[in-house]
């Protein structure tokens, strides 16, 4: 009876002789024979195409991970068939041999090497090229090969795909015909599946590694300290900020996987706190290490809502203060470039203020209301070594006695009904490392003056209702329109506080004494107001400038700005004329008020008339009047009562 090997041999000879195909030949083999013959390949000549050495080296380098992953599987397969004359090979997607595993004599007998090209164009019908073409496992038996050199061999090959379905290469087992059976192809397919699983596992590991790298980068880019814990309290992740805050100097590899209690010490107060955190809701805040940092927590839940861990967020108080200051606008906007004037005396004032900017000593600004004391304060701050720190201010006359104390010094948790949990820092704490501007310091009550004096002497504060002493490093710039020496004589101001504040005294001249600057200031404010109000009033008439020069300006620069804003709003053309000015700037007969040299207009009388005029103009809208006057509504209400204004 004719064997399969013999019948295939006859069918092959018939095809080579007259190109006819025996019906017993598989179509995939018959089609490959036809292509091989059409390519002009001599079936009796073994002439394999080999890749150039430099190309081989590059391909092996590019495919190193693929080769290393496949090699372990190839060696496992070889262990099963060792001693039976099998050769196991790995080819890339182009049919180039990447690696070989087999006994030396078998490798030599097969006549193949790393870098050989197993395509139809090179070797005619073979299992490697057919596996690539059909994208399926295939076994080529004996004379099914087109070259006679391979008629004593049987080769089983299967393609290796990546996770996207693209072919990476081919795994093959080649052996003598008598040693091969159908199970050989099954072994190759199993090997391919193992390679694919290993590649996917490596991809997953790589993705996890990338994810961990991203996670580490994210954690290290966060200003807060981050600690992730298991339910048992073991550390799974911790960033360097947390290590610094918690003063942990152990290597990272000794921390991860270790109980936090063992890392910090069994008596560390944080350990007791976090054990209770597993029993309470997310986000509770507690202070640690004498208030130097706060801790919040968030529980980690599984998909079935079971608690599987916790994340702790540690925030240093100095970082929180910086954040809060940024949110509340605790910064100085003005510099000496914003102070306008060429008056000789005023330029001397600026020179003295710039000298104060180079110092860290306390400053006392003296001047009438509206002369720009806060602009000077901000400019001094921005010119000095504390420019990168916060700038906070408070108007000592604008807040009630009880409120100003909590604003200055903050309060502790439970200090009074409605106090925030964890307490609230005062402006002295928030200004730490920067400048604190105390406007209208002459209005501060004597008992608060005593507390302020103690703060300046000890450089520390105690919150209302608290016991903890909190150090503060703050430069004070105080301002007043009062004669503090006179206030000391009548018992309204403490002499010792005055000397604490009066290190560098700067007198800001009123506008009445620098009338040569009025035209410059008016032009400056005109440009600024046009931008803010989206108007196009370009000029101020000479008549208006003459009126400005004759007017006493009890409200100083602030009054000049307010009058210009009013004029811009009611001017129809592009020039401010006398008709745009308020009535109180004129005498009863309609001519400008001429103030005799050295005469004084009572400030309170002017202020009263100004408030009445503005209330009438704005139909009693007190909020708008307060905004125009740049004072709080509370201050406006108080002045209305003081002046017995019935509108």
Automatic annotation (TrEMBL):
Keywords assigned by UniProt, alphabetized: ATP-binding, DNA-binding, Nucleotide-binding, Transcription, Transcription regulation
UniProt xrefs under CDD domains: AAA, PAS
Cross-referenced Gene3D superfamilies: 1.10.8.60, 3.30.450.40, Homeodomain-like, P-loop containing nucleotide triphosphate hydrolases, PAS domain
GO MF annotation, one: ATP binding
Pfam family, one: PAS_8
PROSITE patterns found in the cross-reference section: SIGMA54_INTERACT_1 (PS00675), SIGMA54_INTERACT_2 (PS00676), SIGMA54_INTERACT_3 (PS00688), SIGMA54_INTERACT_4 (PS50045)
Domain Sigma-54 factor interaction positions: 339-569
GO BP annotations, alphabetical order: regulation of DNA-templated transcription
Superkingdom of origin: Bacteria
Record protein name field: Sigma-54 factor interaction domain-containing protein
UniProt source species: Formimonas warabiya
């Amino acid at each position: 009876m004719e064997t399969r090997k013999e019948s295939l041999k006859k069918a092959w000879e018939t095809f080579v002789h007259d190109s006819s195909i025996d019906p017993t030949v598989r179509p995939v083999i018959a089609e490959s024979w036809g292509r091989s013959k059409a390519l002009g390949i001599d079936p009796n000549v073994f002439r394999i195409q080999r890749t150039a050495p430099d190309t081989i080296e590059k391909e092996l380098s590019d495919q190193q991970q693929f080769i290393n992953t496949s090699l372990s599987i190839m060696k496992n397969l070889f262990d099963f068939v060792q001693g039976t004359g099998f050769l196991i090979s790995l080819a890339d997607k182009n049919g180039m041999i990447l690696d070989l595993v087999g006994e030396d004599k078998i490798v030599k007998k097969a006549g193949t090497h790393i870098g050989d090209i197993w395509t139809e164009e090179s070797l005619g019908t073979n299992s490697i090229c057919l596996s690539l073409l059909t994208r399926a496992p295939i076994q080529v038996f004996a004379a099914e090969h087109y070259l006679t050199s391979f008629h004593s061999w049987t080769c089983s090959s299967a393609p290796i795909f990546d996770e996207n379905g693209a072919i990476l290469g081919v795994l093959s087992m080649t052996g003598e015909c008598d040693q091969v059976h159908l199970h050989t192809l099954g072994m190759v397919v199993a090997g391919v599946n193992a390679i694919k699983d290993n590649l996917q596992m490596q991809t997953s590991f790589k993705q996890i590694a990338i994810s961990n790298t991203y996670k580490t980068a994210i954690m290290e880019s966060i200003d807060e300290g981050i600690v992730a814990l298991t339910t048992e309290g073991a550390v799974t992740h911790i960033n360097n900020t947390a290590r610094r805050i918690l003063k942990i100097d152990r290597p990272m590899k000794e921390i991860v996987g270790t109980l936090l209690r063992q890392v910090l010490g069994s008596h560390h107060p944080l350990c007791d706190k976090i054990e209770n955190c597993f029993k309470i809701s997310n986000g509770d805040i507690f202070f640690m290490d004498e208030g130097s940092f706060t801790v919040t927590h968030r529980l980690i839940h599984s998909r079935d809502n079971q608690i599987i861990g916790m994340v702790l967020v540690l925030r240093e108080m100095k970082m929180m203060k910086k954040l809060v200051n940024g949110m509340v606008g605790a910064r100085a906007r003005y510099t000496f470039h914003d102070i306008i004037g060429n008056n000789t005396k005023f330029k001397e004032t600026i020179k003295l203020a710039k000298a104060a900017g180079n110092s860290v000593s306390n400053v006392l600004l003296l001047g009438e209301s509206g002369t720009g004391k806060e602009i000077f304060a901000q400019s001094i701050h921005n010119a000095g070594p504390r420019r990168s720190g916060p700038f906070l201010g408070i108007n000592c006359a604008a807040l009630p006695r009880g409120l100003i104390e909590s604003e200055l010094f903050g309060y502790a948790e439970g200090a009074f009904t409605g106090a925030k949990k964890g307490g609230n820092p005062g402006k002295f704490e928030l200004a730490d490392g920067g400048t604190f501007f105390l406007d209208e310091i002459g209005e501060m009550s004597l008992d608060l003056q005593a507390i302020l004096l103690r703060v300046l002497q000890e450089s520390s504060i105690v919150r209302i209702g608290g016991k903890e002493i909190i150090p503060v490093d703050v430069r004070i710039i105080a301002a007043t329109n009062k004669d503090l020496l006179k206030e000391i004589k009548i018992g309204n101001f403490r002499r010792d506080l005055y000397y604490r504040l009066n290190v560098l005294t700067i007198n800001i001249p009123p506008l009445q004494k620098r009338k040569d600057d009025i035209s410059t200031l008016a032009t400056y404010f005109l440009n600024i107001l046009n931008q803010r109000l989206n108007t196009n009033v370009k000029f101020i008439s000479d008549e208006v400038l003459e009126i400005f020069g004759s007017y006493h300006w009890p409200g100083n620069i602030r009054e000049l700005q307010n009058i210009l804003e009013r004029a811009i709003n009611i001017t129809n053309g592009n020039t401010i004329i006398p008709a745009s000015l308020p009535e109180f700037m004129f005498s009863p007969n309609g001519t400008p008020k001429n103030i005799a040299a050295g005469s004084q207009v009572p400030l309170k009388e002017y202020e009263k008339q100004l408030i009445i005029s503005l209330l009438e103009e704005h139909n009693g809208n007190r909020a708008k009047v307060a905004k125009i006057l740049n004072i709080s509504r509370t201050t406006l209400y108080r002045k209305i009562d003081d002046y017995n204004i019935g509108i």
